[in-house]
Structure formats: structure tokens, C-alpha cells
Specification:
alpha+beta; 22 helices; 11% strand
């Protein structure tokens, strides 16, 4: 931007970032959001520097960067700022003072604006869990996320926050950590650290704020009888990431993994991967997480464990690697980070769920899978009914449809005892408080559920989703713990369901999986982008018209490069 604004302000270099985290959609006009920011910028600047725009003094220059963080106000909101944008402090920190202007000593030479890609890459900051939690706190969603996390995860990330200053784990010293712990004990520490510590104290019935350092140390200790060694610390620590693919071109047999990135970016899941892994010192292994996500939507392993060579090529390209190493060890080490990612995904689904719409429950991996009935988006997995209740409450306590299958023995009784209203086609056993529903097929209910929901019971589609995504397509088939497999299954199902909704107005995630499984592509790696070229044809046209081929910037496992799509 070189033309002066209406307030006689000249901007010599301007960078605009439009970010949306949470929810499923950018709205009816995604590109229009950028234009709304640009249209509002002149008046935003005029309002910020109004005191310098009066009088006949000399020209002034601000040589330091000026950051304006704006939020899109609610529809219909008033205000003088165009396009409903209002200035707000930078997330998680007090508002920074505007750098003082200084007199202009010499007129700067007018130079054409250029795009310095090296500078852009260098400006990408390492993602930290502190930044993620601070952003959630600003949006008022941190407490909701913490309510979905198990106690061990809250304790793990509280320890990580106390052990490092935000954004600089490796550079923190013992004195820094001691000062932060002292601030918590004194009760004058605010932000995510205080919220995590308060949540942990509430669950363990310990005093808050802690009166002494001993109280805080007891808060960070695992409960009696629990394993004191976190999964990420078991055995020798060995980082196995494979060789990164800096440049070149490769032909892949399926573009499907690449299509997951856009939907996951829109829900905020993609942005959470880096911070979640950083909190357990696994940020360097983000490509391995991407490989597991890719395997989830590629061919089912032969004989339960062996991959087709073509699938290995696709997974490596998606992860930005020359080849994918064995993921079994990574599956064990990444376990502490998975609840944060699962929680971010579940939070986005719970926010968008209508309390009148039913949820579904099905048995998977000796536990329970909670599914949003509108679109068949899996929300969460838990080993018991108690683990699903926070998600059910976050969705507004809607009615539930329970699918017959490998349910835990006390599932129906526990759901009824928790006050969940449900219909099920699972035959109850003695003493379960269910009554037979008058319907053309055998159904039972706790009462309080509209019979019309029985007509929409998608039993066969639920079975297909569970069988295809959670059982047959194993991401890490040899891993003893299925947590990583279930985590990437939740993410892949959400992304596939969003693609199906964009293209066909809503259907099962399995339809998108089968429709694009054999769609080939050419992937070209450059210094600042990974470019995916899809052959022209009906499927490319469907993806393009449905908005499924938008660029995805700053992909963490690709070193911050942008993932782009084209046809040809």
C-alpha cells in the first residue's frame, strides 16, 4: 500500500492475516473477509493515530512495526468502523503501546513492493502450547477445553507451561521456572497457567491458590496408584522423523490425504497440532503425525499390518518426507498430546451442534464413540459412559440414539443413571430402566425422546462408518495402544464429512473416502509451497466448485509451507 489514507497516513508495508479458528465454515463469502479487512484499515489507522493528525506540524514517521488485532463483530452490531471490525488487544497480552512517531529526516525513495519469501518463512514463529491456550482463553473457550481433558493431560501441560516461558522452552532457566512457580503460589499469576492449575486443584480437591510451594508440588504429583512415568518418557528417547523432502516432484496414487488439510484448518485442528506436540517436546515429529493421518484414509493394511507400496509413497509425500519410518514408537510417545487435539476437535463440533439434534453412540475398541447425527461426525471416544458425559453436556444434553453392537456391559444402565434420554436397538437386560417403543422394529427408550427420531435412526450408516474408518483402516496397526489410531480417525472423519457436505450437501464421511481414494495427483515441493496438481475431470470440477481446493497456509509438518491445489 503506497497511497495515503483519508487521514494523510502513508503505509509503506502492510501484512494482513485473516485467521478463523473454531467452527466449520468461513461463511458464504470467504474471500470477502480479506476485502472487509482492507476496507476497514484506513479508518482503523485514523482512529489509532488521531492525535497525530491534527495541527500543522512536520511529517512524522513510525519506524517500528505496528500491530492491530481486530475481531469481526457480531452480525448487526453497530459501530463506526466499516465491515464490523473492532480493535482488540493482542491475544493473551496487554495492549502494546503504539511506537512514538519521529520526524522524517529524509523522504524515503519510492520502491515497488516486493514479496520477500525468505523473510516470510523466517517470520513463522514456533508454535507453542502457551499461545494456543492463550488464544482459547481470549475466546472464552479454554475452560470448556479443560473440562474435556483427562487429569493426566492437564497435569502434563501445566508442567510444560511452568517449565518454560511462552515460545522459548529451550531457553528457559531454573530461575525462570522458580519465578513462575512462585507467582502461582502467591496467587498473582493469571492466564492459562492459573486456569490449568485451578482446574487440576478442583479435580483433586486441593486448595487453590496453593499456599506453599509444597502444595503446588503436590498438585503436580500423579494421584496415588497412578503411573508416575508419562508415556512419552518411557524407555530411551529417540527422535525418528525420517528425511525431509526439500524439493522435487512425485506422483501419488491418491490425493485424499491432501484434501483433509483444508477442512481441518477451518476447524482450528490444524493450527493446534504444532502447539500440542510442542507441549510434550515432539514438535520435530509432526511429520509422523501427518503420516498417521494419511494412512487412516489410504488402503486398509493387508493381513492386518502390511502396506501397499503406493500408500507409503502417498503418506510420505503428505508428510513431506522421503519415506515414512515405523510409527509404533511414535504412537506411544505422542499419547499425552492426543487429548488436546481430540478436545479441540470435539469443541468445534460441540459448539456447532443443535441441542435438538440427536447424538449417536456406538461401540468401538472396547469403548464408546459419540457421533453427531447431522453429518455423522465422530465427536469423541471414551472407554466409559462417564468419559462421554462432558461432551454430551457441551452439546446441550440432546437426545441420544444408541446403536446395538459391542457396547460395554453397563452402557445402557450408566447412560440412564446419568440422565441421558435415549432410544436404542440394543436389547436391554434385566433391571435396565427401559421400555419397549411401539415401532416397526424392536426399539427401547428411557422416555422423554420424540418417537420421530426412531425413523431417522441411521444404524447401517453408523456401522459402515465404524467398520471402515475405525476398524479396517488402521493408521498404526502394530501399536499396542490405539489412542493415535482413534485420534486420527476422529480428525479424518470430520474432514471427510466436511468434504462430503461441501460437495453433496451432507452425507457420510465414507462416501468422500470411497469417491476420491483413487484420484491421482502430482505433488511438487518448492522452498515455500507444496503444490498439488489434480487431473482435470469430473472429480476435480466437483472439488473446485465445492470450495475444497483452497490454499492451506503454514502447514506445521511442511515447515510452514503453504499447501496449494491446481488442475492440469
Amino acid at each position: 500500500m503506497s497511497a495515503p489514507t483519508t487521514g494523510e497516513i502513508t503505509v509503506r508495508r502492510c501484512v494482513v492475516h485473516v485467521v478463523r479458528r473454531g467452527g466449520w465454515s468461513w461463511g458464504p463469502d470467504p474471500r470477502g473477509l480479506v476485502q472487509r479487512v482492507l476496507d476497514a484499515l484506513p479508518e482503523l489507522l485514523a482512529a489509532e493515530f488521531d492525535e497525530y493528525l491534527t495541527g500543522e506540524g512536520p511529517d512524522l514517521e513510525i519506524t517500528e512495526p505496528v500491530r492491530l488485532s481486530v475481531r469481526l463483530s457480531a452480525p448487526g452490531g453497530g459501530g463506526l468502523v466499516p465491515a464490523g471490525l473492532v480493535v482488540e488487544p493482542v491475544a493473551g497480552s496487554p495492549r502494546e503501546p503504539i511506537p512514538p512517531p519521529v520526524p522524517v529526516t529524509a523522504p524515503p525513495s519510492a520502491e515497488p513492493s516486493t514479496l520477500d519469501q525468505d523473510a516470510l518463512v523466517a517470520d513463522i514463529a514456533e508454535p507453542t502450547v502457551a499461545a494456543l491456550f492463550e488464544e482459547l482463553a481470549v475466546r472464552g473457550e479454554l475452560a470448556a477445553l479443560l473440562g474435556l481433558l483427562p487429569e493426566e493431560t492437564v497435569r502434563t501441560y501445566l508442567s510444560a507451561l511452568l517449565a518454560a516461558t511462552p515460545g522459548e522452552r529451550a531457553g528457559s532457566s531454573n530461575a525462570d521456572t522458580d519465578e513462575r512457580i512462585g507467582s502461582v503460589v502467591a496467587g498473582d499469576f493469571a492466564g492459562p497457567v492459573a486456569e490449568l492449575a485451578a482446574e487440576l486443584a478442583r479435580r483433586r480437591s486441593l486448595p487453590w491458590p496453593p499456599a506453599t510451594r509444597a502444595d503446588l508440588a503436590r498438585l503436580l504429583e500423579p494421584p496415588r496408584g497412578a503411573d508416575a512415568t508419562p508415556p512419552a518418557a518411557e524407555g530411551p528417547v529417540e527422535t525418528v522423523t525420517g528425511s525431509p523432502r526439500p524439493a522435487g516432484e512425485v506422483r501419488v496414487g491418491s490425493v485424499l490425504p491432501f484434501l483433509l488439510a483444508g477442512p481441518l484448518a477451518r476447524t482450528g485442528y490444524l493450527d493446534a497440532i504444532g502447539p500440542a506436540l510442542s507441549g510434550v517436546d515432539l514438535l520435530a515429529e509432526a511429520p509422523l503425525f501427518a503420516a498417521a493421518l494419511a494412512y487412516k484414509v489410504l488402503g486398509a493394511p493387508q493381513r492386518g499390518w502390511r502396506r501397499a507400496p503406493g500408500d507409503d509413497v502417498v503418506a510420505a509425500a503428505f508428510a513431506g518426507l522421503e519415506s515414512v519410518p515405523d510409527l509404533t514408537t511414535f504412537a506411544r510417545r505422542v499419547a499425552p498430546a492426543l487429548p488436546v487435539l481430540d478436545g479441540v476437535l470435539a469443541l468445534s463440533l460441540c459448539r456447532g451442534h443443535s441441542p435438538a439434534g440427536p447424538l449417536l453412540v456406538a461401540g468401538v475398541d472396547d469403548g464408546l464413540l459419540l457421533i453427531d447425527g447431522e453429518g455423522l461426525f465422530p465427536v469423541a471416544w471414551a472407554s466409559t459412559v462417564e468419559g462421554l458425559l462432558p461432551h454430551w453436556e457441551a452439546c446441550g444434553r440432546p437426545p441420544v440414539l444408541v446403536r446395538a453392537g459391542p457396547l460395554p456391559p453397563t452402557c445402557l444402565r450408566d447412560l440412564a443413571a446419568a440422565g441421558v434420554r435415549f432410544i436404542t436397538d440394543a436389547r436391554p437386560v434385566r433391571d435396565e430402566p427401559l421400555t419397549r417403543l411401539r415401532w416397526r422394529t424392536p426399539l427401547w427408550t428411557t422416555g422423554g425422546v420424540e418417537p420421530r427420531l426412531a425413523a431417522d435412526f441411521p444404524g447401517e450408516r453408523v456401522d459402515e462408518l465404524v467398520r471402515t474408518v475405525f476398524v479396517e483402516h488402521r493408521a498404526v496397526p502394530l501399536a499396542a495402544d490405539r489412542a493415535l489410531d482413534r485420534g486420527v480417525a476422529l480428525a479424518a472423519s470430520l474432514a471427510l464429512g466436511m468434504v462430503a457436505g461441501q460437495l453433496w450437501g451432507g452425507d457420510t464421511p465414507v462416501l468422500a473416502l470411497t469417491r476420491f481414494a483413487d484420484l491421482e495427483a502430482t505433488v511438487r515441493f518448492t522452498r515455500d509451497a507444496v503444490r498439488v496438481k489434480i487431473p482435470l475431470g469430473r472429480r476435480h470440477t466437483d472439488l473446485w466448485r465445492g470450495g475444497a481446493l483452497t490454499d492451506v497456509p503454514n502447514v506445521v509438518w511442511l515447515g510452514g509451507r503453504t499447501l496449494t491445489f491446481s488442475g492440469g
